[in-house]
Design brief:
The chain is an all-alpha fold. The protein contains four helices and no strands. Helix 1 packs antiparallel against helix 2 and helix 2 runs antiparallel to helix 3.
Length: 84
């Protein structure tokens, strides 16, 4: 982050392109955060939704929702008690 969110996004994208982290929800959550900091709301929303779709445990969607910084996201995978 010392080089800014654009540099962080480039690093995360490079890791995701390698494929090993493609299904790791925290990688997509970190990507969403970089987009959010850059003001790229639509891309942030898409990455948050991908992260939520990959979560396996109920507390994780709730934590991810708090981390969105107010960006409205939709996920059909999240249990109703965590609906957005």
């Amino acid at each position: 982050m010392c080089d800014g969110p654009e540099a962080g996004l480039a690093l995360i994208d490079a890791l995701l392109e390698q494929g090993e982290l493609a299904n790791y929800y925290l990688a997509h959550s970190a990507r969403a955060e970089m987009y959010r900091r850059l003001g790229r709301t639509a891309e942030a929303r898409s990455s948050y939704e991908k992260a939520l779709a990959l979560t396996q445990q109920a507390p994780e969607p709730a934590f991810s929702r708090e981390a969105t910084g107010g960006i409205e996201i939709k996920s059909e995978i999240v249990p109703s008690r965590f609906s957005f």
